[in-house]
Amino acid sequence: MIAAGGQELFVFNLMIKETPIENDEKTLKVGGVDPLILFGPNDQNLRLIEKNFSARMTVRGENVHLQGDRLDLEMIEEIFTELMFLCNKKRVLDRIDVETIIRSVKYGENGRRNGNGINGNHEPHPKHLDSVVLFTHRDVIEVKTSGQAEYVKQARKNDIVFAIGPAGTGKTYLAVALAISALKNKEIDRIVLSRPAVETGESLGFLPGDLRDKIDPYLRPLYDALADMIPSNKLSKFTQEGVIEIVPLAYMRGRTLNNAYVILDEAQNTTPMQMKMFLTRLGNNSKAIITGDITQSDLPRGMFSGLREVVDILQGIEGIAFVYFNKSDVVRHRLVREIIEAYDQFDDSKNHSKKNQSSDP
Questions:
Q1: Count of CB atoms within 10 A of residue 96's CB?
Q2: Which of 194, 154, 176 is CA-nearest to residue 277?
Q3: Could you write out the DSSP letters of every residue in 300-331?
Q4: Whole-model pTM?
Q5: H-helix or E-strand spanning residue 195
Q6: Backbone dihedral region of 316: left (phi > 0), alpha (psi from -120 to 50 degrees) or beta?
Q7: Is 30 helix (H, G, I), strand (E, B) or coil?
Q8: Residue 242: which residues within 8 A CB-CB, separation 6 or more?
C-alpha cells in the first residue's frame, strides 16, 4: 500500500504459475487487493465463478489454485484481472459486478465461447473497464462514441453538466447510469429525476388519478431507464424509501437537495425562470445533469427556452461544463440517424429558400 495525494492506493500484481506436468492447472497469486472484497463473503465470488466454468478453485492465503479445462482457466484468469482492476478502482464489488464480468468474458464479442450468457443474452465485452459507466443486472453500460466519452468525463469532473444534442445520443440514459453508479459507490445518498410537463403547462390538476397517475406519462422515459439498470424489487424499495425520487419540475420549488444526484431531462421545455429555479436547488455534495435538445422545444410559440438561454449565461464558470452531441453520437436504430439527417437537410433547404425570398426585390 502506498500513499499518494493523501489517499491510500493498492498496487496489485497477478502472477501465474503453470504446472509443468499438466496444462489444466494454474496458480494465481493476487497481491495488493483486499481478499475479502475480491473473494466476497464466504468466498461467494469464487463460488459464482466456479459455477460458470468447468473448474475447481482452492484458496490458500493470496494464492488461488485452479483445476479444470484449459480454456476455462484462461477465461478465469481474465476475470480475476478485471475483478482486481475493479477492486482498486471502486474498493467494492457486488454480485452484479461479478456476474457482468463473467458474462462479458465468457460470451462477449471478444469472449472465447459461443452461446447464451447468465441471463440468456449475448453480451458485449467492454473494451476497457475505464469505458464502463455501470455494471447492471442485465448488461454493461459503457460509452459507445467519442461524444459519450467526453460526456462521462465531464460529468465525473464537474458538479453541473449540460448535455445538449439530438434524440438517441444516450444523454438521459447515461445520466441515469452515472447517478446509479454514484449511489452504488456511496458517493451520494439519493437520486432525484425531474422533467417539465409542458403539455399541461405544469398544471396537472385536471388529469384523472392521484399525483403518480398524473405525472407518469411525462416521466415514463426515466422509469424505463431505471428499470434497465436496477432489479424491479430493488427499484420499488428505493422509490418507496425516497432513495430514488421522480418528480415533475413544478414540484422542485422551495427544496434544497443535499448529497444528491439531480437530473433534469427535456430541459429545452423549461422557461428561463424554471431553469434558474432548478439550478438553485443544488445543495452540498450534490451533482446535476441537465439534458435537452434546443431544436425540439415544445414551449408555446414566443416563449424562450431556459436551456437555450443558460448556454449564454453560465459559460466559463468553473465546475459547470457543456457537452454537445451530434448525429454521429446517435446509438439508437440506424434509421434514427438517417431521420435526423433528413430533417437537417429539410430545414437547411427551407431556410435557404426563405433567405432567397427575402433577398428578392
A1: 17
A2: 194
A3: PTTPPPHHHHHHHHSTT-TTEEEEE--GGG--
A4: 0.64
A5: strand 190-195
A6: left
A7: strand
A8: 190
Query: What are 230-275's pLDDT values in tens digits?
Result: 888 888 899 999 999 988 888 899 999 999 999 999 999 999 999 9
φ and ψ at 140, to 5 degrees?
-95, 125
141 burial type by CB count under 10 A (0-12 exposed, 13-18 middle, 19+ buried): buried
Q: What are 135-151's pLDDT values in tens digits?
A: 776 667 888 888 999 99
Alpha carbon separation from 301 to 52, 256, 297, 304, 307 (Å, rounded)? 59, 32, 10, 8, 16
How far apart CA 27 and CA 56 sit, in angstroms, is: 12
CA 278, CA 272: separation in Å to the nearest integer? Answer: 10
User: How far apart are the C-alpha atoms of 137 and 260, rounded to whole Å?
Assistant: 23
Q: Which three cell numbers stand for residue 70?
A: 484449459
